[in-house]
């Protein structure tokens, strides 16, 4: 993923009409609620984000987004339940300077896009300049379409 993203960035910065710098100021990963993190011991989205940040030299803000309550696994829910499941479940870390930043959200699996969408919403409220998302896989979910 990091190689592919690096190639895409190089295509962007080789365009004479675009500024010659990286298109992201920081990378954040989709967090897990603390109880789930203890039981699973890893966060695939965080591991992907760490690798991408290291490879591309972009700052990683793994403490940037905080999950404030447990949520059900998105892939087990019906499509219309997914948005409600994550609504209000995340906050930005106010200790970070978000205003005007260009942020890349990294997730391992995107099913409906509700999680990344919710995180993008709170980042926009924090006055970021832009938000992009990157995922390793597209899930179809077992809960329905």
Task: Quickly list its features.
two-stranded antiparallel sheet; globular; 37% helix; 145 residues; 5 strands; Rossmann fold; three-stranded parallel sheet; alpha/beta
3D structure, described in words:
Helix content is 37%, strand content 19%. It is of the alpha/beta class. It has a single domain (24-138), classed as 3-Layer(aba) Sandwich (Rossmann fold), CATH 3.40.50. The longest helix is centred in the N-terminal third of the chain and has 13 residues, at 2-14. It is globular, with a radius of gyration of 15 Å. The model has no long low-confidence stretch (mean pLDDT 82).
Instruction: Give me the side-by-side strand order of the main sheet.
Output: 1-4-5
Q: Give the low-confidence spans.
A: none
| CATH class wording | Alpha Beta
Q: Give the C-alpha Rg.
A: 15 Å
Q: What coarse outline follows from CA principal-axis ratios?
A: globular
How is the biggest beta sheet arranged?
3 strands, parallel
CATH topology category name: Rossmann fold
Share of helical residues? 25-40%
Q: β content, as a range?
A: 15-25%
Order of helices and strands: HEHHEHEEHE
Per CATH, the architecture is 3-Layer(aba) Sandwich
Number of domains: 1
How many strand units? Answer: 5
Explain the layout of strands and helices.
Layout (H helix, E strand, L loop, with lengths): L1 H13 L11 E4 L4 H7 L3 H13 L8 E3 L11 H8 L3 E3 L9 E9 L3 H12 L4 E9 L7
Parallel strand pairs: 1-4, 4-5
Antiparallel strand pairs: 2-3
Helix pairs in contact: 1-3
């Amino acid at each position: 993923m990091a190689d592919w993203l690096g190639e895409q960035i190089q295509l962007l910065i080789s365009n004479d009409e675009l500024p010659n710098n990286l298109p992201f100021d920081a990378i954040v990963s989709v967090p897990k609620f603390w109880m789930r993190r203890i039981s699973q011991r890893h966060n695939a989205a965080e591991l992907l984000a760490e690798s991408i940040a290291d490879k591309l030299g972009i700052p990683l803000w793994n403490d940037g987004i905080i999950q404030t309550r447990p949520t059900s696994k998105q892939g087990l829910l019906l499509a219309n339940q997914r948005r409600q499941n994550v609504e209000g479940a995340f906050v930005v870390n106010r200790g970070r300077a978000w205003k005007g930043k260009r942020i890349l959200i990294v997730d391992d699996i995107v099913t409906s896009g509700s999680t990344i969408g919710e995180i993008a919403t709170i980042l926009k409220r924090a006055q970021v300049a832009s938000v992009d998302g990157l995922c390793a896989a597209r899930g179809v979910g077992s809960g329905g379409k």
